[in-house]
Write a structure and sequence with these properties.
147 residues; alpha+beta; three-stranded antiparallel sheet; 2 helices
């Protein structure tokens, strides 16, 4: 191997690494939502209890009040459990910003913003913020949710 081929390989690696680093973008603007102030909480749901038993089956979601900012939505996606803040992420919380559960979608009555509970994306996919996700851990029939 000649000195020039080693030099070209090094330059190629550096350029490749620079291209990868430049193409990476941050999602912090979507996560650090100025409309929603985080509230520390930790809640456990037992899927053996009637109010949470629907979470044993894929495609089912429940609303849990008195947790988070304006409650939380929890869904069994079939590949795992996801939990989201129930306040509309695209405006400051108020009396009408608590969303309503309708199957696997939630809607804010203030502005009719509709979000998918599988992805957290708004239905039109043109709003600046997605639903605020919460940490979920599942062990058997116990689901722990926190932020």
């Amino acid at each position: 191997m000649s000195l020039s081929s080693v030099y070209l390989k090094k330059i190629g690696c550096i350029l490749g690494l620079a291209l990868v680093l430049i193409s990476c973008s941050s999602d912090d603007a979507r996560i650090n939502n100025p409309n929603l102030t985080p509230i520390a909480f930790n809640v456990s749901l037992n899927t053996n209890l009637p109010e949470y038993s629907n979470l044993q089956f894929p495609g089912n979601a429940v609303y849990v009040a008195n947790v988070g900012i304006q409650g939380i939505f929890v869904i069994n996606t079939g590949t795992g459990i996801r939990a989201w803040e129930a306040a509309d992420p695209n405006h400051v919380p108020n009396q009408c910003s608590a969303m309503v559960l309708n199957g696997v979608e939630v809607t804010c009555s203030c502005e009719d913003n509709t979000y998918n509970l599988y992805t957290g994306q708004d239905k039109a996919q043109n709003l600046p913020y997605t639903l605020l996700p919460y940490r979920v851990a599942q062990e058997g029939s116990l689901i722990s949710i926190s932020n």
